[in-house]
């Protein structure tokens, strides 16, 4: 028998770990468990499906044969309910026990529900899985009025789905702008205008006090904390994730207060032979020099691969130790202009910002004189150089203006750095 690698979660983090392990160790026993009923699919693309713009086919990434060809055991519809790190075993909902030499936790999160009256009514959607996308597509295609709640990257997907499906929607936001932790009002206004063009109306300083329902239990409207009433037969909520770590509560694995799993930069947890990767981690960010969280596809994929390499190495393989060192990015393609956020755009003690036109804007966040992340609207060309400044932690404290030049010249920063 080969070394036994068990992976919980067949999202991009778990799947990329399985692939890495198989490439590094042809003899390993690899088991991937997921509580979903389908193998890895492209979570980024399910919004295009929900908009009614894409068939199901291209969204799937792995067919069951993919696992067969690599001799990876895939167990669908299997929920892991407990781990016993002393015995090195996991337990499933159907009473199975599986032993491991190395265990990867790649369980991601589940959308949070609003803690208000009727929040589980028919017609109120949360968005994470392909199943959710199917339900959203079906409902949005026949709905007339909608309300969206959650002024972040997933909320705007729901808003764009309403726009694409001709649902006249109100987008209720708590503050005075969309994603106000990363954008100023000026930058956010470009996004608001694009929403309005699609008949999605941003409503500020709002939220949900309770939902109204009809006799069948279907949502009919939303009342906000100011007492305003908004009609809605379709509601989309995206107010954040609850991390899927309940099954770890009885273990010694270190979790944060919000339930994410603490790892080092090699994706090791505090418990021997147990690793974590993807959205569920609170990892040591080598570039930031601090613990951090990411919710992006590319970052989850890379973390899965790093974890996979170290799982093989730590169980006797000859791989070099792998380290997660990554500037993530997340783009939005719903509008006539491109949008990209990179790194940690909500962190920082100062920022540099400029508006170039009605649809072009840039903001760069800075902490201790180094770029931590930013948001680009309209022109994504500077992203490579800005990401390099972040990755190499080049000092920009005396050259903030250079971050806003149409074309960024990294040499100018290096020269400034050398002179100080
Ligand atoms: C609609 C939408 C749009 C997005 N758009 C973008 C985008 O444009 N760009 C971008 O970078 N990112 C985007 N993201 C985020 C990106 O998809 C995630 O960051 C990424 O998928 C995280 O991968 P993961 O493997 O860590 O977790 P997940 O993909 O969440 O996978 C975790 C898996 O583990 C399973 N699981 C959980 N608990 C258990 C258990 N106890 N037992 C068994 N299985 C379990 C879950 O069901 C799930 O299948 C989007 C996300 C959504 C939902």
What do these coordinates show?
With 420 residues, the protein is α/β, with parallel strands linked by helices. The chain folds into three domains: 4-110 and 241-314, FAD/NAD(P)-binding domain, CATH 3.50.50.60; 113-237, FAD/NAD(P)-binding domain (3-Layer(bba) Sandwich); 329-419, Enolase-like, domain 1 (2-Layer Sandwich). The protein has helices spanning 12-24, 46-50, 64-69, 130-140, 153-164, 185-197, 297-314, 383-391, 410-419; strands at 4-8, 29-33, 72-75, 80-84, 89-92, 97-99, 102-105, 109-111, 124-126, 145-149, 168-172, 200-203, 210-213, 219-223, 229-231, 234-237, 241-243, 261-262, 274-276, 281-285, 290-292, 329-332, 339-343, 350-357, 360-367, 370-377. α1 (12-24) packs parallel to α7 (297-314). The radius of gyration is 23 Å and the shape is globular. The model has no long low-confidence stretch (mean pLDDT 97). Flavin-adenine dinucleotide is lined by residues 8-14, 33-36, 43-44, 46-47, 79-80, 106-108, 127-128, 154, 157, 244, 247, 278-279, 295-298, 300, 330. Pfam families: Pyr_redox_2.
